[in-house]
């Protein structure tokens, strides 16, 4: 019985795509938790989300991001204009000492403009972040479902 059950589980695991569980990363005093994005087609735009935490005693700033998967990568926020929320590029994203900054849908995000290839759910895509103090760090965005409002793999 046990053997059959195990075989059943192994067979199921082989068929189902493995979830691309988001990982956590560090650069100097900056902790980068749960970087993720949404499935999207080639030539579409995408957005990267994550949690940035500054464990140090000095302020830092995310200055830029880059990825081979997009033609252009920008730092964006959302601003209210009358009844609608619009995206707007920002120069940088401050991460004050001891503070946590959320990049999330409807707020700050990393804009991936002109995807070179489709973002497939379950895949991971590389992204390089450049901080003023912490320097450069490469992370991987876990690709979630197209309509995801949050990563399904929070710890
Ligand atoms: Cu945007």
Automatic annotation (TrEMBL):
UniProt keyword annotation of Signal present: yes
InterPro entries: LpqE-like, Lxx211020-like, PCuAC_sf
Record protein name field: Copper chaperone PCu(A)C
Native species: Neoroseomonas alkaliterrae
Keyword Signal assigned: yes
SUPFAM superfamilies: DR1885-like metal-binding protein
Keywords linked to the UniProt accession: Signal
Pfam families: PCuAC
Signal sequence range: 1-22
């Amino acid at each position: 019985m046990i053997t059959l059950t195990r075989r059943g589980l192994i067979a199921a695991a082989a068929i189902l795509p493995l979830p691309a569980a988001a990982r956590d990363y560090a650069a100097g005093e900056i902790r980068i938790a749960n970087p993720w994005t949404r499935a999207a087609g080639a030539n579409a735009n995408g957005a990267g989300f994550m949690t940035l935490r500054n464990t140090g005693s000095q302020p830092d700033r995310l200055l830029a991001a880059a990825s081979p998967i997009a033609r252009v990568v920008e730092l964006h926020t959302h601003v209210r204009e009358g009844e609608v929320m619009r995206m707007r590029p920002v120069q940088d994203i401050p991460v004050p000492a001891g503070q946590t900054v959320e990049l999330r849908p409807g707020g700050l995000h990393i804009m991936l403009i002109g995807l070179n290839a489709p973002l497939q759910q379950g895949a991971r895509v590389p992204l390089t972040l450049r901080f003023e103090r912490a320097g450069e760090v490469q992370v991987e965005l876990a690709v979630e479902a197209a309509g995801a409002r949050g990563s399904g793999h929070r710890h």
